[in-house]
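Structure tokens please, single chain.
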Amino acid sequence: MQVNDLFDSQSTVATKYWHEHDGRLQCDLCPRYCVLKPGQRGFCYVRANDGKQIVLTTYGRSSGFCIDPIEKKPLNHFFPGTPILSFGTAGCNLGCKFCQNWDISKSRAMDKVMSFASPEKIASSAAQYNCHSVAYTYNDPVIFHEYALDVAHACRDKNIKSVAVTAGYMCDKPREEFFSVMDAANIDLKAFTESFYKKQTGSHLQAVLETLEYLYHHTDVWFEITTLLIPGLNDSEAEIEAMTQWGITHLGPEVPWHFTAFHPDYKMEKIPPTSLQTLLNACDIAKKNGFYYVYSGNVHDKKSSSTLCHQCGSLLIGRDWYELSDWNLSASGKCLSCGTICHGKFAEKAGTWGSKRQSIIL
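Here you go.
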């Protein structure tokens, strides 16, 4: 059997971020730098050495499609209330012990059950279902780089926005190309210690920080940050203080930050859920350090899920889970009470999708 026969030709495409290394091929997409023999797959499982080059083996393959509220990504300042067509593939370039999509990200046989959807089909379906945007999510879109780029280009042709939900663990050149076609992103900053990243995710912190700085200083991509707080591992006041101090120094106060609750899953079933008070304490620290928009997530707390004017404190956008309950922004995105701009990307009116979740078949 030829090495090429090991991969499904329909869903296998050539990639460009690799080079030869001591008779093998090194993948240069992310800082894991997998060095592969012919027929061998990388840590992410979906990029492989076909004997001649590094290929993506899941092009066009998805683990499912669903229309979600944009707030579920979570993005609170990117066209609130609008529907977003969400999809992912299989595999991941991180090894998070707390992964809440582990059945997808850790899959080694998804190609047997995944449906096929071309980039053009995804874009046309988003338009058909009146979705404002498409989310590359469920697993990290970094690893299906080529597929994500083609989908994003197809979406732009139909005026559909692209949203990346990613851990931001990628190399410089792929990062630049990837975000050149994204309109918004949620970046998962998992902790603020190298020890956590190394032990709990099998990766490194610095590359993620570089992604955040790149987005803020070199792109027009609207992005928000999410940190899942895990009791006893990354939820200390000292770590949150250091993390948000770094953020206010290297980024800016207008970047929204979501502190979300951990629920026992995958390899961390014995760790208790995060308390609401822990999330509120983290929010207070971030606000003290200068961030305008700080939110709790994965818990039901309308007050800490809503958007307030950073100048006068008036309620701008009320949220009850994923339902918008209040909208006090002008057509130009300003506070109706004091006229201060609310940072983000807003339409003249709030969307009306609500909390609905609709699975679809393409």
